[in-house]
Amino acid sequence: MMTKQLSLDALWESAISKDRPFCSNERSHLPEAARRYLEHAIAPGTAIASAVRLQMHGEIKLKSWIPFKAEQVICWEHGLIWSATAWMNGLPILGSDRLVDGAGAMQWKLLGIFPVMVASGSDITRSGVGRLQAESVWLPSVFCNDNVSWTRMDSSHLHSSFVVQGERAELDFTIDKTGRLKTIKLPRWGNPEGAEFHYVDFGGIVESEGTFYGYTIPTHLRIGWYFGTERFESEGEFFRATIDNAIYR
Question: Which residue segment(s) compose the domain that 205 sits in?
Answer without folding.
Answer: 50-248
